Amino acid sequence: MGHRFAEIAFTAAVQAAQEARGSRAGYARMTEGDARNDRLGEKEIDFIHARDGFYLASVSETGWPYVQFRGGPPGFLRVIDDRTIAWADFRGNRQYISVGNLGGDDRVSLILMDYANLRRIKLFGRAEMLEVGEDKGLAEQLAVAGYRAEVERAVRVRVAGFDWNCPQHITPRFTLDEVEQAVTPLRQRVAELEAQLASCEGNLA
Ligand SMILES: Cc1cc2nc3c(=O)[nH]c(=O)nc-3n(C[C@H](O)[C@H](O)[C@H](O)COP(=O)(O)O)c2cc1C
């Protein structure tokens, strides 16, 4: 028991690398104590629901790791319960690399970035794919209103463990919506000042 993400990530080779570099003693404590970091709390749920994309790693049958991006409007990645997340998988280039990989090995790793607030979560889980029509309830639950994309399947991931990362080395980046929100009051202020200036110029003339 203990920190579920660390239990999976800290393999014998990883532990040896920590030992050789002097960080093992501190990290050994992570795998002690009660089971934790396998149930999503309020903080994780809010974070997941605010994401407009994430990186998904799967394992190929030849052992190569494969990373692909999945994106959609905020909320497309849904928390079903405290151990389960799911999303609607949209039609893309039809290479079906992640789909093929998941058919052979259901283990996935996700990294979810919040560039604006310098936060990220990494997560291990086991994925299950449900083709559209297989689970109507889930498909309806995952539907993204007004978003132009063809849903091919639902992907449901049973969370095995997660961990928050520190903000180090994340460059702040902002979405168009976030920039709009920040700039709107400035635009209004500029318009007010321009109106005042025009009125002063009028008075002087
Ligand atoms: C018309 C079209 C062309 C695309 N071409 C590429 C491409 O050349 N390379 C790529 O990595 N993704 C491309 N994408 C995005 C992928 O299709 C998308 O990320 C998809 O989820 C890939 O999943 P997979 O890598 O698991 O097969 C394209 C998407 C569309 C709609």
Explain this structure:
By secondary structure, the chain is of the alpha+beta class. It has three domains: 1-37, no CATH class; 39-173, Pnp Oxidase, Chain A; 175-205. The protein contains seven helices and seven strands. It has helices spanning 4-9, 12-21, 24-28, 42-49, 97-104, 136-142, 176-204; strands spanning 53-59, 65-71, 77-81, 84-90, 107-114, 119-131, 151-165. The protein has a seven-stranded antiparallel sheet. Strand 5 (107-114) and strand 6 form a beta hairpin. The chain is extended, with a radius of gyration of 23 Å. The model has no long low-confidence stretch (mean pLDDT 95). Flavin mononucleotide binds next to strand 2 and helix 5.
Q: How would you summarize what this structure contains?
A:
The protein is an alpha+beta fold and 205 residues long.
Count structural domains: 3
Low confidence ranges: none
User: Largest beta sheet: what is the strand line-up?
Assistant: 2-1-5-6-7-4-3
The overall pLDDT, averaged over residues, is: 95
The level-1 CATH class of the largest domain: Mainly Beta
Which series of helices and strands comes N to C? HHHHEEEEHEEHEH
Layout of SSEs?
Elements: H1 4-9, H2 12-21, H3 24-28, H4 42-49, E1 53-59, E2 65-71, E3 77-81, E4 84-90, H5 97-104, E5 107-114, E6 119-131, H6 136-142, E7 151-165, H7 176-204
Antiparallel strand pairs: 1-2, 1-5, 3-4, 4-7, 5-6, 6-7
